[in-house]
Amino acid sequence: MLRGDTISDGCKTNSLTFRLNLRIIINGKKKLDCCNGEFARRTATNESKLYYDKSKATLAAKCHLNHTITTALLLTPKIIPMITIPIIQIMDLSCHVCLSLADKSLYVVQDIYQMNYPRTRCEIKSGPIQKLIDGLSLVESMVNSIQDLQEEYCRVGSEEIKNMIMKKKKESCVAED
Questions:
Q1: 101: β partners
Q2: Does the reported pTM lie above 0.85?
């Protein structure tokens, strides 16, 4: 996890030079950004900041989603709509978790979960801590699914290559007959 105004390689490649406050990176064979986020203090919370941060995080998530799809060599078209990149936007004491979905050049950003940090002792006792845990568990499950996807669809082992070659040979033999 990186925090504190960092730029991902995917964003640099696409000439997006804005910095993100939070990046969660899977460090497998290749580094893969799988979540990003923006934070704002109470004094900096306004509508302009909200939409600017959301657009930065969304564009970065789009870059990460495109990178995930293009590096997953064995990915089937049915799997693509199931890939989600979580976006965390925290302003003041409220936290929104969004995700973007792709389906053939269609990107959707949805507000899928909202949680508030408790401010008083009474609020702590009333249960928002469990809602925070549930929200962070949701982000964790999305990150884990991206990691599973990377492990399953990005690896082309010798057995898969051998099967592809054998399939190609069978197709050419059938075509010659």
A1: 84, 108
A2: no
- What lies within 8 Å, CB to CB, of 30 at 6+ separation is 71, 154
**Structure token digits, residue 124:** 């702590």
Number of H helices, E strands in the chain: 5, 6
134-165: string of b/e by CB count within 10 Å (b at 16+)? ebeebbeebbeebeebbeebbeeeeeeeeeee
**Per-residue pLDDT reduced to its tens digit, 74-125:** 888 888 888 888 999 888 777 778 777 666 778 888 888 888 888 888 888 8
Alpha carbons 147 and 141: distance in angstroms, whole number: 10
Nearest to 93 by CA among 41, 129, 24: 41
Check: CB of residue 86 under 8 Å from CB of residue 142: yes
